[in-house]
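Human
Can I borrow your eye for a moment on a structure tokenisation matter? Give me a protein, with the fold worked out from its sequence. Write it directly below this note and I will take it from there.

Assistant
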Amino acid sequence: MAKPRSSFVCQACGSSYPRWAGRCEACGEWNSIVEEALPRDPGGRLSRRGKRIDFSPLEGSDPEPPRRRIGIGELDRVTGGGLVQGSALLIGGDPGIGKSTLLLQAAASLASGKSPATCAYISGEEAIEQVRLRARRLGISGTNVELATETSVTDIIAALDHPDPPAAVVIDSIQTMAVDSLDSAPGTVAQVRASAQELIRVAKRRGFVLMLVGHVTKEGMIAGPRVLEHMVDAVLYFEGDRGHQFRILRAVKNRFGPTDEIGVFEMTDRGLIEVPNPSELFLAERRGNVSGTAVFAGIEGTRPVLVEVQALVSASPLATPRRAVVGWDSSRLAMILAVLEARCGLAFAGNEVYLNVAGGLRISEPAADLAVAAALVSSLSGRPVPEDMVVFGEIGLSGEVRSVSQADLRLKEAAKLGFVRALVPPSRRRRDGSAGTALRTVEIAHLQDIIEIIGPGVRSLSARRERLPG
């Protein structure tokens, strides 16, 4: 009898090794290499002669793939207008963030919409009664959603691979699924890859929408092989802080829609409620005339979002002052502090700096540079930014303020919420007046101008603090 073959596979990145090692050379993880048995039929030479394939021209007139609207506006926005038949979606997020709740609500909405469709919810983590309890709490127990608890991919495919499958199938979660031909435990790299491949294959063949729930690692990445994200058609991340009731659904990959859209939800005792106007919600608890705060007009996909940027600068007794950031890039904050010190003469060396984006939203666009600088100058000088002013603009290393995209859309959203002034970079072209009539814009070309507007006299204050002993 032939000796069973095995290999050692890293559970973090999927790299394989001929022998065990304590550290993966590909991703740097420790104690992540586990021995896994190779498939019983490892392959080798091609078993048959392939048939000739037909090529098609690049230009064609194929119709756009049909979509099925979910009925949840924020989820439809992130997916690009609805679900495409035969597509596979992967939804990841921290434990308890609301992934199962969102997909159960989505299945119920599909089953009870204008064109009702049969949906299946297959759980590998919870019993059927647990899912029913959640459905009763959400008020959706009367919808036509079929439930099952199963972890065997072979049995799941046997139930779905027929001419009349459900329109949408939810697998919660892919890390609990297992293929019988592999001897490794569920959740390993080989099992996750093989399970997803088999489920996606039957979804493409039968034309139903497959929605997979994915666990995440401590770094926030979806657990399992990286190839899992390449196999699916869309990857959605569910973000949020347990201290906030807001949840952000962000698309990082979408073959049938944009990849920069977000959906905003509010977690309540009745489940997730979509927020059609997130700007109004993020600014609901804002207090005016407080130093160290500035309202940033950002863009998330095609939607303008206004959020409050908060900064606190205080004297530090430590030799190395703290720099804490929530909701923004810490290296970007270090750059802004360096520019303020080198180009504007402000001193932050002996101060602790804390920066926070209120509401739990994470900002990634560089247009927030000017709002962060305004909040820092306001906190250092003790003078508040005018409460009826919004700020946006990118800052360069020489202190220049650079223009950003979609400025008119940002100004329109600010005017809609009652703001009357805007601190903006110089415009490249003359605006058509559609947004400029409601707001009075103040254009600044260099970061030094913001000091004269928000914190006059802050340079002398910084110099006096530097001369203080200790």
